[in-house]
Structure formats: C-alpha cells, structure tokens
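pinging the channel bc i need a second pair of eyes. not urgent but kinda urgent?? the chain im working w is below, pasted from the shared doc
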Amino acid sequence: MPEINHSTYIKAPVEKVYQTLTSAEGWNAWFTDNTMLEMDYKGNGEIILRWENFGSDQVDIEDGGKILEVVSNKRFVFQWSPGEQPSTVRFELEPYREGTAVTLYETGYTNSEKDLRACIQCAVGWGEALTLLKVYLEHGIVYKEDL
C-alpha cells in the first residue's frame, strides 16, 4: 500500500516543535485555520483540523480523528480521513545538532482510485506543510494572518 514519508530539519528545540504539534494554537499558526485538539494527560484524545475558505474554490474543510499516541518530545500520532478510510499520520522528533529532525509518515491508504488520489495530494501537501512548520518555528511567520 502507498506510504508517505517526509523529513526536514528545523532549527528549534524538540520541546518547541512538540508543543506546536500538540496544541491547536500551534496547528493554526502553520497549517490550519481553526483546529481543535483535545488531549488528556495520557495522550488520548481527538484532533479536528479545519480550513476556512480554502483554495481557489474557497471551501470549508474539516477532517480529523483519534489521537493514537503521544510520547512527550518524541512522537505525535493521529488519524484523519482524506481518502476512503482513516489513514494514520505519525510525526517523529529527534534532537539533531542545534534543532530537531522531524519525520512524517502517513499510512493506511488502499489501492482504490479515491485513496490513491488522496495519497498523492497528501504526499505533496505534507511536503509543503513541513516547510510551513519550519518557516513558522524558525522565523515566526504564520500560515495566515488576519486581513
């Protein structure tokens, strides 16, 4: 089955990267418009990713699912459903030089036409998203400012 895999280096401490990935405010700064993230102290919870007036069609999009695993300053794993069935997104964080090596994996796509289309779109999208995360954490530039 298709799998997505992207890596980047971010010149920011692991703790700062982890905090960004595990808070709604963090997601909204680099990726979404109105994300909700609820987690208990064990890491159980749900993430709802929201985009408002997205793309050339100006559509509102909502997706998300269960938070499957949270390991402080090391890993954040959740499900969402850009294709036919839920896929699993895993962020792995490792200290590296003066910052953090971030690796993203997404698995769970089938070989159906809809899943393959979603996988291709997400493969491109996650590459762009990690660039947005890097720019936000290194330079403070946010995804979308109020106009």
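so The beta strands are 4-10, 36-39, 45-54, 59-71, 75-80, 87-96, 99-107. and The two ends are 42 Å apart (CA to CA). — does that match what u expected or am i reading it wrong
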